[in-house]
Amino acid sequence: MSTEPKRVAPLFLISPDGMLGRAFSALFEGKAGASRTRIPGQRLPFDALSYPSLDLRDASSIERAVQPGCSLVINCAAYTDVDGAEQHEADANAVNAEGVGLLAARCRAVGACLLHFSTDYVFDGRASTPYPVDAPRAPQNAYGRSKARGEELLEASGAEYLIVRTSWLYAPWGKNFVDTIARAARERPALRVVNDQRGRPTSAEYLAERSFALATQGARGAYHVTDGGECTWYDFASEIVRLEGASARVEPCTSAEFVRPAQRPAYSVLDLARTESLLGPSRPWQENLADVLRARRS
Ligand SMILES: NC(=O)c1ccc[n+]([C@@H]2O[C@H](COP(=O)([O-])OP(=O)(O)OC[C@H]3O[C@@H](n4cnc5c(N)ncnc54)[C@H](OP(=O)(O)O)[C@@H]3O)[C@@H](O)[C@H]2O)c1
User: Fold this and answer.
1) Is 170 marked active-site?
2) Count of domains forming the chain
3) Looking at residue 215, which CATH number applies to its domain?
4) In which domain, by residue range, is 98 found?
5) Which of 38, 84, 160, 224 has the highest count of CB atoms within 10 angstroms of its CB?
6) CB under 6 Å to ligand 1: residues?
7) For 143-154, how does the pLDDT look when each residue is reduced to its tens digit (9 = 90+)?
8) For residue 8, which of 73, 92, 52, 99 has the smallest C-alpha distance?
9) Statement: residue 36 has pLDDT above 60
10) 4 Cβ contact list (under 8 Å, min separation 6)
11) What H or E segment, with its residue span, contains residue 296?
């Protein structure tokens, strides 16, 4: 039996099975992406672990997973049930706040940079112009509070870090708005979609590419990454139905007609200037969406 220590890859991916985690796995495995902005074939060595092998609530499992020799830890794990968090705020905090604190402490101990993802929900949603990266955090729901606390703990940890806030994620896989609307458009004659929440959709693959580019180009601190442009959920749904060639009617409605446990921000457009100054303009959401729908069909 070999006594050689296991080689530690420079990249460590947490939650390769989630919506964003799958996008990072595909990126590092050199697979052709839906977004077509990627050069396929370039493989990058990485290690990865999913829950429950790695549980962010458990310092010892983090310690076993994140080993010296790793230089960038990519955290795609989170408690992401926005409505569930209203009833289970302690569970959301255990992963999104304290768990991030534990992970940051481990990254600091092994000298790795932590690429962490956060959300537009850390802001109050009352603005009428895009939220800059240094806008004050004022979350309006339990999930947003847990993510904001995670940001604070990471900032205070002394670890080297890059926080990437994003919004309205979608991908060719998993349960997400694009999948829901594309399915519903085939099954129902009409769909009602809220037209009073404004934000920026984000392709998970595009997010993985842009945030990894930020990390490797030395960006540190807080950045925002989304698709380019902005829209309401109604606009987004209308474009999904149009691109799918479905005959379903899309009808606008208000958030008041769709009461959910967690309050959603009316305006959550993230300002992209800091990211665009390094990486250039963001790709329009209509283009990323068309690519994702094409990949979803194939
Ligand atoms: N989805 C969005 O629209 C959106 C918007 C803004 C920001 N974000 C942020 O983007 C990041 C990625 O989101 P996503 O949509 O890709 O999430 P996702 O698909 O829900 O994946 C989250 C992953 O975290 C894992 N996880 C849950 N609890 C864990 C724990 N205690 N320890 C380790 N892993 C755990 C889950 O495992 P199980 O499946 O086994 O539970 C799942 O694989 C998150 O930070 C999220 O807050 C997402």
Assistant:
1) no
2) 1
3) 3.40.50.720
4) 11-171+201-227+270-283
5) 224
6) 15, 17-20, 50-51, 54-57, 76-80, 95, 99, 117, 119, 147, 166-169, 174
7) 999 999 999 999
8) 73
9) no
10) none
11) helix 285-297
